[in-house]
Amino acid sequence: MFKQRKGDVLFIIAILSLSGILILNFGTQGLTLTVWMVLFPLYIFRLIIWSKWEFWKETLYRYLTPFKWKLSVFTLWPLLALFVFFNRHYIYIHAFEIPLVLIIIGLLFSLAGLFITFWTLWLLGIDRAVLTTLIFGEKKKEQGKIISHGPYALNPHPMFMGEKIIVSGAFISTGELSLVILFILALIANTITAREEEKDLLKKQGKNYKAYKSKTSFLFYSKKRGNKK
């Protein structure tokens, strides 16, 4: 199974390795830096793509192949992450000293959020996570199905929920005010993404999606709404 999902495995290993290196070298500031380097490019990506979804979907389908699209995503993501790294002094806005107990609680929160996010990513797969199947179509029948088990049984957007828990935990551990800014950016980007994804899924899934929607809560966005991611 791991050979068939090697792209997903490599991505998860890369994120964990980056996190470990930065935290070991920079301490609690490394946690802040890790969260910004991983999530900031993701939110910029979501804002650009989902604010004009129909336009980008048609344009990317016309001019790119699935391979070129994924290559573009995984080239731009590290470049934006490096931009954050070399400007990291701007994100260190230390508000107050954090007692050890809160540092531990925050780290546990972040680990819980990381677990939820990686679990969701594993269920989605890289192709769905970076919108390859939404833009170019599903290669396999199961890729088009609504995921309703695991974290999706409780929340239609467990990845978004996991990301918020990560950012919240990092703020509790570090007290860095820049993480509040990142949390607000997450709310904006994920709200736009969720609403546009819902429209897209309603077109494709119809009654099946409406039935799923009625069974899940749309936390942070609106009541009784749902989605795939």
Describe this structure in a few short sentences.
With 229 residues, the chain is mainly α. Helix content is 72%, strand content 0%.
List keywords for this structure.
single chain, 229 residues, mainly alpha, Four Helix Bundle (Hemerythrin (Met), subunit A), 10 helices
What's the topology here?
Blueprint: H1 6-26, H2 28-51, H3 53-63, H4 66-86, H5 100-124, H6 126-129, H7 132-136, H8 158-174, H9 178-205, H10 207-215
The H/E string reads: HHHHHHHHHH
Label the overall shape.
Answer: globular
Residue share in helix: over 70%
Q: For the CA atoms, what is the radius of gyration?
A: 18 Å
- What is the overall number of helices? 10
List low-confidence stretches: 218-229
Secondary-structure-based class equals mainly alpha
Provide the number of structural domains. 1
Number of separate strands: 0
| Distance N to C terminus | 22 Å
Assigned CATH architecture: Up-down Bundle
Average of the residue pLDDT scores: 87
Strand content: under 5%
The CATH topology, please?
Four Helix Bundle (Hemerythrin (Met), subunit A)
**What is the CATH class name?**
Mainly Alpha
Major beta-sheet overview: none
What does this structure look like?
With 229 residues, the protein is an all-alpha fold. It has a single domain (6-215), classed as Four Helix Bundle (Hemerythrin (Met), subunit A), CATH 1.20.120. It has 10 helices and no strands. The chain has helices at 6-26, 28-51, 53-63, 66-86, 100-124, 126-129, 132-136, 158-174, 178-205, 207-215. The chain is globular. Residues 218-229 have low confidence and may be disordered.
